[in-house]
Amino acid sequence: MPRIPRTAGRPHYNVTFAVLLLGVGAYSLLQSMVVPVLATLMEHLHTTQETVTWLMTAYLLSASVATPILGRIGDRAGKERMLLVTLVALTAGSALAGVSNSIGWMIVARVIQGLGGGVLPLAFGIIRDEFPIAKVRGAVGVTAALTAVGGGLGLILAGPIVDHLDYHWLFWLPMIMTAVATVATFLFVPESPVRTPGKISWGAAALLSIWLVALLLAVSEGPTWGWGSARILGLFAAAVVVAVLWVLVELRSQAPLIDMRMMRIPAVWTANLVALLFGVVMYTAMTFLPQLVQTPAKLAGYGFTASITQSGVYMLPMTIGMFVLGVLTGPLAARYGSKLVLIAGGLITMVPFLVLSLGHDHSWQIYLASSLMGVGMGLAFSSMSSIVVEAVPAEQTGVASGMNANIRTIGGAIGSGVAASILANGVTAAHPFPPDSGYTDTFWFLTGSALLAAAAAVLIPAVRGAGADRSTGTPGPDRKATADKESAPA
């Protein structure tokens, strides 16, 4: 099929939207699909528990570096161009993982897949460029919700894929999705009409990469290496020192990679604080709730002895809830405001962990908590992303949303590290399962984190509509064929 000429008119924004959702969905699946099958991969790849966890750590580190940097390059060099690069990396990484039979090559493949983190900020930027202003909030909300839904769906699909195919198909299926998305992007996603002039500050990019890797490596490996070990303390110290140096370089730069003045916008820094706390909640829950239900009751004295597939069924209400509420968030935010929706999401998210803190011995408690998590997280993730997009100029959408997504990842790493340390207390060679009280303490920790997220959301100031200039309140950059798109059906 020949590529649609750019001069023949821009594709309808709904076509562009469908392509973006395909790429974001594939990236989201890859985030979580490995989590419930780490034990299976450890057996097939003939490796150790400590080594197999690098399949998550490597992906996390790569995505943390790639997400803000690719978002910024897209703002300057063209979002469509960088989206193609990102999707090609996702496809290549998935293909390599699909043919890998050794842990070394699998880790390399996960590093390449992590470059797919750039899909999120690039998608948000393209939506802001291409959609009618009235449609931006809803489209951003659905896209943000899909990142969470895809994570939940990955937990559900992992079991049936491994049971009926084999572990290679955990990567073959996303590879097919990203390959189709790559071709569709080339055909149907228009070139960026909004760009930021100037060169990329590669020195700032290097400093950003160093402190992010140091921080995330420390919080990821803290439970294994020991929080008080010289390696962990050294990594934390390096992260602080390099982060300060990075900020100083960005403040003095004529063309900063990430504009510190943008990061100080009240709506941006408060939304990022909320993102950090929600990252703690969501990623920790998605990691350790399946672990709880898979625990053999006869050996541990608690748990549900669920298979990988059965543990996915427990997470199904959460996935459905995140999708439904993610779709509804746009209309709700238009009526009540994104801030109020975000606060409601935080308060609702607190309830399921309170339920699990008080008791997690019966299946109905898990299903109830899973359902409430879907409602709360669906509201929160969609509205949070909308707030960031609405708060910054159009030319900074990619980097702002990239940093917000990155901060969620950091929160997830922190939450998972803290939870792993809590659960490690009481584990011995004779009793390799965490004590039940460890899960109770973990759920109290997540209850407090969700409450803090709702409290932080109260601090978010009101922001102007998408596309408005912060200083003047005037409409943002003119979008080609906006009038035609405003009148077109959604």
Automatic annotation (TrEMBL):
Biased composition (Basic and acidic residues): 477-490
Region (Disordered): 467-490
GO BP terms: response to antibiotic
InterPro entries: MFS, MFS_dom, MFS_trans_sf, Sugar_transporter_CS
Topology within the bilayer: Multi-pass membrane protein
Domain Major facilitator superfamily (MFS) profile: 16-465
Annotated Gene Ontology cellular component terms: plasma membrane
Chief subcellular location: membrane
SUPFAM superfamilies: MFS general substrate transporter
Keywords: Antibiotic resistance, Membrane, Transmembrane, Transmembrane helix, Transport
Subcellular location: Cell membrane
CDD domains linked: MFS_MMR_MDR_like
GO terms, molecular function: transmembrane transporter activity
Residues spanning the membrane: 12-39, 51-70, 82-99, 105-127, 139-161, 167-188, 200-219, 225-249, 269-293, 313-333, 340-360, 366-389, 410-431, 443-463
Protein's recorded name: EmrB/QacA subfamily drug resistance transporter
Phylogenetic lineage: Bacteria, Bacillati, Actinomycetota, Actinomycetes, Kitasatosporales
